[in-house]
Amino acid sequence: MENDELAPHQPTSRRQPLSRDLILRVAIDLMDRQGVQQLTMRQLGQALGVEAMALYHHVNGREDLLEGVVDLLVNEIRIEPGAPTPAPDGWQGLLQWVAHSVRDLAVQHPNIFPLIATRHPAAPWLRPPLRSLRVVDEFLQALVARGFTRAQAARTYRVFTSFLLGHLLLESATLGAETSPVEEPLDEGDADVPNQDEELDLKEFPTLAEFRPLLQAHDTDQEFEQALEALLNRLDLEMSQ
After folding, report:
1. What is the pLDDT of residue 99?
2. Which contiguous run of DSSP H or E holds residue 193?
């Protein structure tokens, strides 16, 4: 019997009307099977049982497709409110809960996680993999609700995302993912691009709007030294036991 992983993707039933959501989900399935670099609009059309040109009624080219895939997957992360399982009350439990939620995403979609990690977020002061306005807003709200000051919450966001990014990119690579950047495709028709910083509308995310100055102001040299010192202190503790 032919291995399912090597079998060609079967065309999606045409009983399902073509939509942006369906296109993105089939694209995710193809990327999971073969990687991001190999996906073409023609191949995606074949998997959906349509001509490639029919896709452009719902996505503005490959660039918009990749952005939609990232947004769809990242928005599966729900912290508070609306999470299927409530986050723990303590801040340690919260960070463990969020970390495992992001790791589950990386393990389930190792071929796509490097794309999540490397594409530009909505603003330069946001960091992958927690790159969406809603996710970051919920994350900061949750930290403040557990007793963090705004400065502590902002610093935790930066340190926490750095940890997730480094560890999970390495784990994705060990699972066979390509970690080189996706070649920048030509814009095939007004593809969506990340919002310019000055154009961001944060009315729906008041916590994020409040934190914006703190997230914009950071010292990367100091953060690196502090993270390195924390690592050395932890290793020193282990060696002394």
Report:
1. 92
2. none
Cα gap 214→160, rounded to integer Å:
15
CB 141 within 8 Å of CB 207:
yes
Question: Distance between CA atoms of 3 and 9, rounded to whole angstroms?
Answer: 12
The domain covering 9-59 belongs, at the CATH homologous superfamily level, to Homeodomain-like (1.10.10.60)
Q: In angstroms, rounded to a whole number, what is the distance separating the alpha carbons of residues 29 and 23?
A: 10
Q: Domain residues of the chain, as ranges?
A: 9-59, 78-240
Closest by CA to 175, choosing from 98, 77, 103, 231, is 103
Amino acid at 122: A
- pTM to 2 decimal places: 0.77
Cα(21)–Cα(125) distance, integer angstroms = 28
Using a pLDDT cut of 90, give the percent of the chain over it.
Answer: 46
1-15 tens-digit pLDDT: 334 443 444 444 445
Q: Select the more confidently predicted residue: 93 or 119.
A: 93
What pLDDT does residue 15 have? 55
Residue 79 CA to residue 85 CA, distance in Å, equals 9
How far is it, in rounded angstroms, from Cα 197 to Cα 113?
Answer: 24
